[in-house]
Amino acid sequence: MGKGRGLRTARKLRSHRRDQKWHDKQYKKAHLGTALKANPFGGASHAKGIVLEKVGVEAKQPNSAIRKCVRVQLIKNGKKITRERSAVERKEENQSCERR
């Protein structure tokens, strides 16, 4: 069955389009709000945190390096994230750092 083409099909076309929008992956991600809740930054571009410990993270295949990283607890919500590389050498435990 095709879509209605008559004079009195505006409501059906509009409601069908509204229902079908939710099958689009980008639309669903933008309008559900769960992607924002799952983001530790909460939609912000920067966040401050406190360094908990220095850790080594193994690189993905085919490399076999150990990257220097730090474990950081964010001040705004208490979530713990692993911060990569930049300025890790200078950071000691319990120091403040900013993540971009």
Q: Which helices and strands, and how do they pair?
A:
Layout: H1 10-21, H2 25-32, H3 34-38, E1 47-58, E2 66-74, E3 80-84, E4 96-99
Antiparallel strand pairs: 1-2, 1-4, 2-3
What characteristics describe this protein?
100 residues; OB fold (Dihydrolipoamide Acetyltransferase, E2P); 2 domains; 25% helix; alpha+beta; 4-stranded antiparallel β-sheet
CATH architectural label of the largest domain: Beta Barrel
The profile of the biggest β sheet is: 4 strands, antiparallel
User: What gross morphology would you assign?
Assistant: elongated
Query: How much is the average pLDDT?
Result: 86
Strand order of the largest sheet: 3-2-1-4
Rg over alpha carbons: 23 Å
* Helix share, percent: 25-40%
SSE string: HHHEEEE
Query: How many domains is the backbone divided into?
Result: 2
CATH superfamily of the largest domain: Nucleic acid-binding proteins
Tell me the distance between the termini. Answer: 51 Å
Describe this structure in words.
With 100 residues, the chain is of the alpha+beta class. The chain has 2 domains: 8-38, no CATH class; 47-99, OB fold (Dihydrolipoamide Acetyltransferase, E2P), CATH 2.40.50.140. Helix content is 25%, strand content 30%. It is built from 3 helices and 4 strands; from the N terminus they run H-H-H-E-E-E-E. The chain has helices at 10-21, 25-32, 34-38, and strands at residues 47-58, 66-74, 80-84, 96-99. It has a 4-stranded antiparallel beta sheet with strand order 3-2-1-4, with no helix packed on it. Strand 1 (47-58) and strand 2 form a beta hairpin. The longest helix is centred in the first third of the chain and has 12 residues, at 10-21. The model has no long low-confidence stretch (mean pLDDT 86). Component of the 40S small ribosomal subunit. Part of the small subunit (SSU) processome, composed of more than 70 proteins and the RNA chaperone small nucleolar RNA (snoRNA) U3.
